[in-house]
Amino acid sequence: MAVTDIATRAYNHNFRLDPIVRSLLDTDFYKLLMLQMIWREHADVRATFSLINRSQTVRLADIIDEEELRTQLDYARTLRFTNKELIWLAGNSFYGKQQMFKPDFMAWLADFRLPEYELRKADGQYELHFDGPWTHTTMWEIPALAIINELRSRASLQNKGRFALDVLYARAKAKLWEKVERLRAFPDLVISDFGTRRRHGFLWQRWCVEALKEGLGERFIGTSNVLLAMDADLEAIGTNAHELPMVEAALSDNDAELAEAPYRVLEEWRQHYGGNLLIALPDAYGTAAFLEHAPSWLANWTGFRPDSAPPVEAGEQIMRWWEEQGRDPKQKLLIFSDGLDVDTIERIYHHFHGRVRMSFGWGTNLTNDFRDCEPDGEAGLEPISLVCKVTEANGRPAVKLSDNPAKATGDPQEIARYLRIFGETGHVLSPLSV
Amino acid sequence: MAVTDIATRAYNHNFRLDPIVRSLLDTDFYKLLMLQMIWREHADVRATFSLINRSQTVRLADIIDEEELRTQLDYARTLRFTNKELIWLAGNSFYGKQQMFKPDFMAWLADFRLPEYELRKADGQYELHFDGPWTHTTMWEIPALAIINELRSRASLQNKGRFALDVLYARAKAKLWEKVERLRAFPDLVISDFGTRRRHGFLWQRWCVEALKEGLGERFIGTSNVLLAMDADLEAIGTNAHELPMVEAALSDNDAELAEAPYRVLEEWRQHYGGNLLIALPDAYGTAAFLEHAPSWLANWTGFRPDSAPPVEAGEQIMRWWEEQGRDPKQKLLIFSDGLDVDTIERIYHHFHGRVRMSFGWGTNLTNDFRDCEPDGEAGLEPISLVCKVTEANGRPAVKLSDNPAKATGDPQEIARYLRIFGETGHVLSPLSV
């Protein structure tokens, strides 16, 4: 008995747009945590976010149709938080805490919409800028990246047959499940999905997240994607990102203030959040420099999220710092989230097992690994190193150095100034995979 | 917009049975061709068909619930050819010929239903017999096999999670597609689906057939499954099977008549069918013996379907025979259909390419290859060597020798008599894979 739903069919006939971002919750959880703090502390700051394609050989403007991109961005701008979403945000507990988002912030959120964007083509790439109050432009980062990545996926799948497509996804499923089977070997693994921004597509991310939920059981602690956390009844995972020290640094009036910026941000963070949200991101201007001048109260925090440095070295460095501060690393948490895949997760897991608590935020290689899945062997599905970074705050250039010079962003003269102030200890150039 | 079809949902709530065989067309095309001849020439013959599980270590009665099996068999007995099906059979052209099925036969078919069955358990196996007019019992072969094979698949999938199941099929799809990609390398390949009887399940066979249609294009000439041929607008493929010489042999009154039986059957066949349906199956009592005494008019036929003998040797033997008869093998057709997979297809293709026309009937390894696809590595999905053979005709034992003694069926004393008459030249014992 094949009953055709006539309404669905009629709707499909009228099909005009398959929106990529369909909810303002389809973003990373840390965006909302940061937003609440930005809204309360820095409502007057203007910040520009800009798209940066570090994979220059992939000429996005030749692949993605400009009209389609505008239509998707415009559609995202029509979105509001729905009542259900607001009630869930207000009523759900996050990281074991009720009322993470305060009523006045929730009231403000109810009117939120994504601000305007500036888009133009240059040299086969898109120049995409979001300029406006930091409280608004910050919210473009994840949807903008998700839209561009998914439009690129769609473009590369455009002329495939029905079964070629079916087999493509079949292969990707089999591939992911092999990873799940390998990860199952680690009974006390703690892992979550961090793959929203670089995902192949929303539906694929959802499949991956639900597959991990079934396949990894307790090892899978949740997802950074707020919408998927709500829909799949998972924990929303995330803390804070580089944009906080970057804006704080950009707003510094002199070199001394700049040197203190990474710690001022954390000072502010601990006014708003506690417990397992007290995770420091040490690499904005180099992990070594950060730890060298870190205040002793930071040793009370739950842990660190080493990001751009080689993970084993960065972890060891942080553990040494805890020991110097008289803390037992076994009580502390390291969150790894930079370009992870099963091999690196295994290596890190074995290296640190029993010496420190660990958690893994698995991103691009979870939600966008179609390598060798293309039946016809065509290119276009390999993930690219696309980011959307804050480039200016109140008209001043924003800079990120990171532990890997390949990840540095900002005006070269400013980068030079920052390098003078923070030093280059421990900076290691590594090729960017994702 | 996720519109739920309420009627479908309500139907699912009332779900009692997921029938395996839902149409009398869900059978092999040669069954209908043979049936028309049996109906016209042997309407008075009684024939018993019996299930034979040559994979004795697989205890089917421990795996498949008897009630479920009875329910499926009973459901199949409720089926009639529908008007649409009858109209299509009458109106479609098969092998380029209109009205393959004559009006009087079609009128008879309109009332057809599957006859009763006898089922009991013994030693962990099912004894399943179909006794009655040959015109009716013959039609049980394919649905009975399809039902048992699919019930076994369902049993082994019973306790799997949603994503484990999804990945299982994903792997099987990827596996099949790799075969498709390899087969694409042969531009003048001619291949069809012969996998109904041993299929993993109906929906899986449908996927495989439609995938081959997309993936192999012109190389894929059709399917032996009449229902899928109708639904997917493919050619229905098939000619005749061992039951014809087996019954003819069983009905022989003396050794001299028995020795002639294999040729009498073909004599009869050519009264009914012509062109590309003139394909001889030479191995019922040994290919060597068959060719040694074959009448010269058989050299006018389109080709042979060597079955139980090693394919290269059997093909060479048949080609020698054509040459002895003064015919050019390049004008003749060899149809290979015994336990094929891509490796064997490639080997046979390369061996005979340019020397004879070839066609491949791909069965079990097309529609039931889940080896290494089980996420949890459990057994139960490997195909088994299950057949449903004619065992008696008008109360006399039926015998098949074939070129491979492992495939011989029948009463041991009768087998000895047949061996005395036909000889054992060229009989080679080979392990049965499927």
UniProtKB/TrEMBL annotation, chains A, B:
<dbReference type="InterPro" id="IPR040727">
    <property type="entry name" value="NAPRTase_N"/>
</dbReference>
<keyword id="KW-0328">Glycosyltransferase</keyword>
<dbReference type="InterPro" id="IPR007229">
    <property type="entry name" value="Nic_PRibTrfase-Fam"/>
</dbReference>
<keyword id="KW-0597">Phosphoprotein</keyword>
<feature type="modified residue" description="Phosphohistidine; by autocatalysis">
    <location>
        <position position="242"/>
    </location>
</feature>
<feature type="domain" description="Nicotinate phosphoribosyltransferase N-terminal">
    <location>
        <begin position="25"/>
        <end position="149"/>
    </location>
</feature>
<keyword id="KW-0436">Ligase</keyword>
<dbReference type="GO" id="GO:0034355">
    <property type="term" value="P:NAD+ biosynthetic process via the salvage pathway"/>
</dbReference>
<comment type="function">
    <text>Catalyzes the synthesis of beta-nicotinate D-ribonucleotide from nicotinate and 5-phospho-D-ribose 1-phosphate at the expense of ATP.</text>
</comment>
<dbReference type="GO" id="GO:0004516">
    <property type="term" value="F:nicotinate phosphoribosyltransferase activity"/>
</dbReference>
<comment type="similarity">
    <text>Belongs to the NAPRTase family.</text>
</comment>
<feature type="domain" description="Nicotinate/nicotinamide phosphoribosyltransferase">
    <location>
        <begin position="191"/>
        <end position="416"/>
    </location>
</feature>
<dbReference type="Pfam" id="PF17767">
    <property type="entry name" value="NAPRTase_N"/>
</dbReference>
<keyword id="KW-0808">Transferase</keyword>
<comment type="pathway">
    <text>Cofactor biosynthesis; NAD(+) biosynthesis; nicotinate D-ribonucleotide from nicotinate: step 1/1.</text>
</comment>
<dbReference type="InterPro" id="IPR036068">
    <property type="entry name" value="Nicotinate_pribotase-like_C"/>
</dbReference>
<dbReference type="InterPro" id="IPR006406">
    <property type="entry name" value="Nic_PRibTrfase"/>
</dbReference>
<dbReference type="Pfam" id="PF04095">
    <property type="entry name" value="NAPRTase"/>
</dbReference>
<protein>
    <recommendedName>
        <fullName>Nicotinate phosphoribosyltransferase</fullName>
        <ecNumber>6.3.4.21</ecNumber>
    </recommendedName>
</protein>
<keyword id="KW-0662">Pyridine nucleotide biosynthesis</keyword>
<dbReference type="GO" id="GO:0016757">
    <property type="term" value="F:glycosyltransferase activity"/>
</dbReference>
<dbReference type="GO" id="GO:0005829">
    <property type="term" value="C:cytosol"/>
</dbReference>
<dbReference type="InterPro" id="IPR041525">
    <property type="entry name" value="N/Namide_PRibTrfase"/>
</dbReference>
